[in-house]
Amino acid sequence: MGGPQKIPAFCTQCRSRCGCIAVVEDGRLRGIEPLPDHPTGQALCPKGRAAPELVYHPERVTTPLRRTRPKGAADPGWTPISWDEALTEIAARLSRIREVHGAEQVAFSVTTPSGSHISDSISWVERFIRAYGSPNTIYGTEICNWHKDYASRFTYGHDVGTPDFANTDCIVLWGNNPAATWLARQVEIQKGLKNGARMIVIDPRPTALAKRASQWLRVRPGTDQAVALGLANLLISSGRFDRAFAGTWTNASLLVRSDTGHFLRQSDLRADGRSDVLFSQAGEGGGLLPFDATSEGSATPVLRWSGTVETLSGPVLCHTALELFAGEAAEFPPERVAEVSGIEPGDLAKAADIIAGAKSVAYYAWNGVGQSVTATQTDRAISNLYALTGSYGRKGGNVPGGAAPFVDISGQDLLSSEQRDKALGLAERPLGPGLQGWVTARDVYKAVLTKAPYPVRMLMSFGTNLLVSQPDTETARQALSALEFHVHADFFVNATARYADIILPVATSWEREGLRTGFDGSLEGLRHVQLRPPVVAPVGEARSDTDIVMGLAAGLGLGERMFDLDADRGHNAVLAKTGLTVEMLRGSPAGIVVEGAAQLDAQAAPHDGRPRGYPTPTGKIEIYSERLLLAGYRPLPGLDVKDLLPVDANYPLRLGSAKSVAYCHSQHRNIDSLRRLVPDPVVEISPEDAAARSIVQRDWVRIRTRSGDVVARAAIVPGLAPGAVFGQHGWWVDGGDGTPYDRSHPLAANLNGAIGTDRADPVSGSIPLRCSWCEIEKMAGEPRPA
């Protein structure tokens, strides 16, 4: 008998996707260890190390289950059924609804690939949904990745890109704490700091990285847009920005008509003029300077100018885009930023000095700024500020794109335009996530309960837990109870799965194969491609999400659209342009490094005899977005501070939420080793605010909002921004006798049950999970710690 097997792999438990060694003995996963030569394999977090507890957890669903009792019953009466029986019934339901009512009347729900095992299968699941024809997938993107990945395209034409933290002069972390959420990024930050980079952290919480920052901006939750505009104002007013980059690669110099808000076009000046030729103002009184979307221009444009231009309709006052943005930013001098955000003028000035003095700047912004009613324009303000540094796409900056031309097989081309237009919420948010078929949970609930704009009859969920990952908990209960049919695929019977008609057992990533085309913790990691093998056999009858959708596709006659139900064919299609194959990767389980690299200054690369530019309407980074204007939104990230004010004086505290290294979203609270690290939900509160409410460390408290209440233990945190409190979302597991969230009411600790959705970001639909308003009070009569 040999010793333990050590199998190269990578963990999918969170966004970091850490390279590791799976230790297997007698066919069982015994543990995972770091894989130092892997681009993300230097360290592992507690969630990853708890992998064996997850795989062999006694509460794992190991066979398909059918409900035998009414929804709402204390005991659903789960009865095991066969896979054939389950898939046949599900496929029949899907087929009948599509034929009689339309595929749009089936909604799907997909958990985040950024923080769950579904990352191995997400492209296959989305491909199946689009092949079936539904435009309605609850993806949670509007409260997760959409702003950094899609709202950023209103500015860059690309996503936020991969920050080159290891090689930058200035690290900016904005509403992002990789020490708790992205270990591989934390490693890259350490490299940058060791190389002499300075770091700015914009965060209300005194995180470990905030304490190490050259400048910590202790922002009030939800006021980040004011901070971004304030920093931009300091850079623009002092002239300390990359003028050459702004003049060449942004639309800062483009002239905007004050009467319409549109760019000045050649067709505005003469009857035979072209609408695709726009204008800047040439320097030294040179007059109008025409340029099209792909030219760099032969003369130097003026970046800040306003004046009257004679048009076919008469004289029109015009301004450059940068002049208009400068005006918006000037509304936020340091004193006003302090009033709105709580950041002292001197601290704001120091941060601006660091940015202005850096040769390169790399940044990342995520949930901390994305979960608010101004999320899209906050991202725009941060992106415009970053464009002024000239670092986008350059070494030491944020670099868009990958290291090789991988093919996306998620099936965007499979959904017809007719079906795409039926996405719930798309009419109200025409530039939002609905364009990709990603809809909000509350729009689905509305369609289920009111049948408007049409009924949603069936929901098929892959790993989600809507009752605790989203607000509107009571509305969710009503909608889940009213569905004609509900299928849930997962590891456990979570709070949401209890409302399903059929539950399907899903294999963990350790029990199935998974392809990873690049590890985006770093630019170097983007070159690493790996096909992780199944390191142990599935527990019970568990199947991968990929196998589940393949089985359903077979029953629905969709095999041709799913690569003839052959996962290898699909994966080879992903790899086709790289020269790699599935067999090559199977022969190198630790992964293969592709020869390419993320391209620096890609916008300058020649294309048809001209610089490629950016994939935006003007071919430039768009300081001013005419696309947003045409859709009825602000073309510049102006801010009405009334959007940030409390609506009820009875709730004076700003309520946010923060993640713990022990958990990811609503997962892991039933894992013993992780629960020991954080046994109860906590709410962080400043010493000043705690003293004012006679609250001491670890008191049970009640968090009250206009929408509900939730219980937690007080964690008094010195240095936390006064007036701000931070809870933890995702609690649904029984806390045990003697806790305020025992088996009689486990959702009493569900923070999202107290978050309102009456206000949302008008572009994306994001809701204020990180910037609501609350009051906190000490609970009387609850047990105190010994």
Structure description:
With 786 residues, this protein is an alpha/beta fold. The protein folds into 5 domains: 5-55, Single Sheet (N-terminal domain of TfIIb), CATH 2.20.25; 65-144 and 411-516 and 530-563, 3-Layer(aba) Sandwich (Rossmann fold); 147-242 and 327-399, Dimethylsulfoxide Reductase, domain 2; 246-322 and 617-630, no CATH class; 645-778, Barwin-like endoglucanases. It is built from 26 helices and 33 strands. An 8-stranded mixed β-sheet has the order 5-4-22-21-20-6-7-19. Strands 29-31-30-33-28-32 form a 6-stranded mixed β-sheet. It is globular and about 80 Å long. The model has no long low-confidence stretch (mean pLDDT 94). It comes from Reyranella humidisoli. This is Molybdopterin-dependent oxidoreductase. Belongs to the prokaryotic molybdopterin-containing oxidoreductase family.
List the helices and strands and how they pair.
Layout: E1 5-10, E2 19-25, E3 28-34, H1 46-49, H2 51-55, E4 65-66, E5 79-80, H3 83-100, E6 106-110, H4 122-132, E7 137-138, H5 146-149, E8 162-163, E9 170-174, H6 178-181, H7 183-194, E10 198-202, H8 208-212, E11 215-217, H9 224-238, H10 243-249, E12 255-257, H11 266-269, E13 278-281, E14 288-291, E15 306-311, E16 314-320, H12 321-330, H13 334-341, H14 345-357, E17 361-365, H15 367-370, H16 375-389, E18 398-399, H17 417-420, E19 438-439, H18 441-450, E20 458-462, H19 466-469, H20 473-482, E21 485-490, E22 502-505, E23 514-517, E24 528-532, H21 545-556, H22 567-575, H23 582-586, E25 592-593, E26 606-607, E27 610-611, H24 626-630, E28 653-657, H25 672-677, E29 682-685, H26 687-692, E30 700-705, E31 708-716, E32 724-727, E33 772-778
Parallel strand pairs: 6-7, 6-20, 7-19, 9-10, 9-17, 10-11, 20-21, 21-22, 28-32, 29-31
Antiparallel strand pairs: 1-2, 2-3, 4-5, 4-22, 8-18, 12-16, 13-14, 15-16, 23-24, 24-25, 26-27, 28-33, 30-31, 30-33
Helix pairs in contact: 3-21, 4-21, 9-12, 9-13, 9-14, 9-16, 13-14, 18-20
